[in-house]
Amino acid sequence: MTIENAQLRVDEWIKTVGVRYFNELTNLGILMEEVGELSRLMVRTYGEQSFKASDKYRELGDEMADVLWVLLCLANQTGVNLTEALQKNFEKKNIRDIDRHKNNEKLH
Q1: CA dist 42 to 56, 62, 79, 94, Å?
Q2: By the 8 A CB rule, do 21 and 77 touch?
C-alpha cells in the first residue's frame, strides 16, 4: 500500500464507518495519546520498565499503525499530501545532513 492509497483508504473509512472526522484539535490529542501508548510499549520492550498485565498483549506494529492512522487523518483534514511532504523532507535532509552524521564522532 502506498502512502497516497493509505490516505484515500482512511478517508473512505472515516466517511463510511466513522461517520465523520473528529476536529483537528481532537485528532491532535488522539495522536498524542497513541504516541504515548507506543512509547509505553517501547519502554517496556526495550527499556528498563517491567510490563503491567494490561500491556503484555499489545503489539508494537499495531501501536505504530494507530499512530499512522491518526496522522493520516490529520493530513487528510489539513490538505497535506504526505507522499509529496515526505519526498520534500527527504530532499531537505539530503541537503542539510549530507555530512552531518558522517562527521559526528558520537556515531563512530
Answers
A1: 12, 12, 31, 28
A2: yes
Residues 39-93: pLDDT tens digits? 999 999 999 999 888 887 899 999 999 999 999 999 999 999 999 999 999 999 9
Cell numbers linked to 103: 562527521
Q: How far apart are CA 66 and CA 38, in angstroms?
A: 9
Cell numbers 476536529 label which residue? 23
CA distances from 83 to 11, 16, 33, 51, 106 (A): 15, 24, 24, 36, 32
Residues 6+ apart with CB under 8 A from 42: 60
| Helix axis angle, 24-46 to 60-78, nearest 10° | 160
